[in-house]
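Hi U.,

Before I forget, here's the chain from the pilot set. I'm dumping it here mostly so it's searchable later in email.
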Amino acid sequence: MRPIVLGLAVALALVAGYWDWRSRRIPNWLTVSGLVVGIVVNLMVGGRGGLRTSLLGAGLGLLVLLPFVLLRSLGAGDWKLTGALGAFVGPAVLTDLLMGSIFVAGIMAVALVIYKRRTMQTLRNIGRMLGSMMTFRMPGQEVSLDNPQSLKVPYGVALALTTVVYGVWRWKMEWGGR
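Structure:
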C-alpha cells in the first residue's frame, strides 16, 4: 500500500470518527465519496490490480457487516464507512482494522457500561441475546439500536481510532526511516 492511499484512509477515518463522536451519524456524502475516491486512487496508483484490491476491500467490508445492520445492532453509516475504508486499504488490511476495531469498541462498551452503571442490565441483555441465538429467534426490541434507552457505542469512532493507530504504525515501520 502506498503512503498516499493510507494517508487518505486515515483522513477519511478521522473525519468520520469526528462526525460519529459529535452527532452519532456518519453522513452519506462522506462515505460515498470516500468509497469513490478509494476506488479511483487505487486504480490510479495500482492499475487493474489496485482496482481489484479496492473492490474486494469494499465488498468485504460491506458483506461482513451487513448482517449486523440488518439486525439493527450497527448503524448504516458505520457499515458504509467500513466499505469506504475497504476501498482504500483492500481486504487484508481491512480484516486487521475490523479485528482491532472490535477490540476497541469492546473497551469503549465496557467503559460506557461502567460509567452509566448499567452492568446488571447489560448482563441481562447479553443473556437475552444468547437465548435468542440458541433458539434461532431474533432478539427483542430491548437489545436493538431502535431502543432509545440502550447504550450505544459509536463504532465509527472505534474504527477511526484503529485506522489512525494502524496508519501511524505502518508509517513508522515502512516509510518513517526514509
